[in-house]
Amino acid sequence: MNGNIEEAGIRVLTEGELISAVVEKHRRFLEEDRKEFEELDSRLTQVEEDVKNSKNSRIRMAERKEILKEKRQQFYHQAEAILEKELFPKLDQMTASKLKEDIKKLKGQIEPGEEQKLKESFMENLREIIRAAGPGENLLLQTDARLKEARNSNLELNEIIQSEKQLEENDGSKNEEISKSKSQHKWLSSKISSHEEALNYWEKLKV
């Protein structure tokens, strides 16, 4: 049998050579798996950090939203208070009630674009009423300033809401990535342990 193998040009490996080949194989696999594990571990750490930062950002956004909602209502309340004091006593009840109703619409939860249209219509109407009632241009300017501040608060509020939606989408894909990466992480860790045990076993035989 050996003669036939030698005639065919095939050399039979010794036990030591076979063990060395097995050791080399496990070393190569171990090196590849460790490299993949380190890259995955680094990526996983980064994604988890991103999710953590995103969570903190969303907490800050929620707090800022509450402040802006309150500020917006305060500016409308101030505008209403000015008109209550300086203008409404000079008006008939129907005209005053119509202005109050318009302010109520402005104070509602509406998009900044809609708010701007309502504000322009309100201020145009108010300008005519003030001219007729005679309390002066200063009242118009004070009211307009507060309505602008109220809308600015709503603009920022709307921007935050859009940013929150984007963060939610990003967090969804990142949480999915974390889930997949953790499974891969666990599998690679198990593979590395198996190769380390095998390498340890075969290296002892090599000696």
Main features:
single chain; disordered N terminus
Architecture overview:
This protein is an all-alpha fold. The protein has one domain (2-206). 89% of the residues lie in helices and 0% in strands. The chain has 5 helices and no strands. It has helices at 2-7, 15-86, 93-107, 112-133, 137-206. α3 (93-107) packs antiparallel against α4 and α4 (112-133) runs antiparallel to α5 (137-206). The longest helix has 72 residues, at 15-86. It is rod-shaped.
Summarize the structure.
89% of the residues lie in helices and 0% in strands. It is an all-alpha fold.
Q: From the helix content, strand content and strand pairing, which structural class follows?
A: mainly alpha
Q: How many domains in all?
A: 1
**Relative strand content:** under 5%
> What's the count of strands?
0
Distance between the termini: 30 Å
- Poorly predicted regions are 1-5
Give a short account of the largest sheet.
none
Rg for CA atoms: 37 Å
Order of helices and strands: HHHHH
Compute the average pLDDT.
Answer: 89
Helical content (DSSP H or I, runs of 4+): over 70%
Number of helices: 5
Q: Shape, please?
A: rod-shaped
